[in-house]
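User: quick one, fold this
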Amino acid sequence: MKIRNSALAGIALAATAALGLTACGGSTTPAATGSASSDAKPSGEITVYNAQHESLTQEWVDAFTAETGVKVTLRQGSDTELSNQIVQEGAASPADVFLTENSPAMAQVENEGLFADVDKATVDQVPAEFRPSTNKWTGIAARSTVLVYDKAKLTEDKLPKSMLDLANPEWKGKWAASPSGADFQAIVAALLELKGEAATEDWLKGMKENFTAYKGNSTAMKAVNAGEIDAALIYHYYYYGDQAKTGENSKNVTPYYFKNQDPGAFVSVSGGGVLKTSKNAAAGQAFLKFITGKKGQEVLKNGTSFEYAIASDVPANDKLVPLKGLQAPTVDPAKLNSAKVTEMMTKAGLL
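Assistant:
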């Protein structure tokens, strides 16, 4: 639920939060700029606004609590829902940590000046390509863009060489996507950053002419599997997750990786950050350090989320194409512009 306050109440809450931070930390210096929060033993409790898969985050929470004793309360929602809520709550937000599936929601909160710097010990665990250049938050996992296609209808030699080709007339009526989801909007945000506004606008116009809309990546893949549509642009883990279960929604499809630094080879970084107004910044920073550390990343490697481990030299799940083999384009996650993407997709009639 979103919090609505009068102007006076908002000012009072902001002042109270600021005083609380001073009292808890003993200093107004941001936790991330010094080593004290990295070295301090975490205690107490934190609230995590979680837009990641709940089962994955619950594994992280259980392991973190077992190791530190810190109690973690999860509030679940979508990327955009929770980023908007944090922005609206501002200094009154009860959130200590924010986790997302994609980067644009993290960039939105960062652009509002609401994140503390990430502790250096955590930054050092995450390779530069999987975190924003600003270090106001960090990557915690990743997912690759893929085109899943019907093996009975298409062979690899007939697949598009680039994601941009999906806007061409020969692909009219042959592919699907879920444009209303944060996953797809992150892909468009990467296209905007890589190719610019004019090219993105042209591609969205072609997409509008050619594609079929489904609600959710799983639904789009299921439609390909059922023979309703030839292909769908989604993230990789929907395929691998279904294959690890019954395979009933993926037995007739296979994932195609664009590679070659194509926009369609975009790897979306899932993010984590500590709010400036956290009442337990030391525990919040410790949680980020834990999930990007070896134990946290092994939850990705050995678990059933099939998202990519990206930190602490932990390799990906054995069933996945190794990250280096994806040949992904270089994109600074801090520059993914969700507001502009929403505006452009709305203009194109996709939202």
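User: anything notable?
Assistant: Confidence is low (pLDDT under 50) at residues 1-37.
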